[in-house]
């Protein structure tokens, strides 16, 4: 009645710990290759946030200065730079992760799931 995985957990916990440590090593290896891409995305989201916060502030200041001193082309360019920074950061942050990210880990999880289903079907 008890699933075979539970008997292995009870009788040989060192095997389970070895398997889990293998998963941890695989995740660490896969994450190190994907880490650069994740760091690029984090920086892009940071640039997007800074640009999105700066744009309305600079646009408000430009509107007030324009009302007091009249129109000047820098009153459009300065907030426009912040807006372009936000849009550029957003476009960079929205790029898809490479398709080959964590493929080995996914394959290992699928193989383990198939093995567990096969063991469960036999008992």
From TrEMBL:
<feature type="transmembrane region" description="Helical">
    <location>
        <begin position="71"/>
        <end position="93"/>
    </location>
</feature>
<protein>
    <recommendedName>
        <fullName>Phage holin family protein</fullName>
    </recommendedName>
</protein>
<keyword id="KW-0472">Membrane</keyword>
<keyword id="KW-1133">Transmembrane helix</keyword>
<feature type="transmembrane region" description="Helical">
    <location>
        <begin position="42"/>
        <end position="65"/>
    </location>
</feature>
<keyword id="KW-0812">Transmembrane</keyword>
């Amino acid at each position: 009645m008890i699933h075979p995985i539970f008997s292995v957990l009870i009788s040989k916990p060192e095997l389970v710990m070895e398997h889990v440590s293998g998963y941890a090593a695989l995740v660490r290896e896969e994450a190190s290759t994907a880490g650069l891409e994740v760091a690029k995305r984090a920086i892009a989201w940071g640039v997007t946030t800074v640009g999105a916060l700066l744009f309305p502030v600079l646009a408000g200041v430009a509107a007030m200065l324009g009302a007091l001193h009249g129109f000047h082309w820098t009153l459009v360019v300065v907030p426009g730079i912040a807006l372009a920074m936000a849009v550029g950061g957003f476009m960079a942050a929205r790029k898809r992760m490479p398709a080959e990210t964590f493929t080995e880990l996914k394959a290992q999880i699928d193989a383990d799931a198939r093995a567990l289903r096969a063991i469960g079907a036999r008992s």
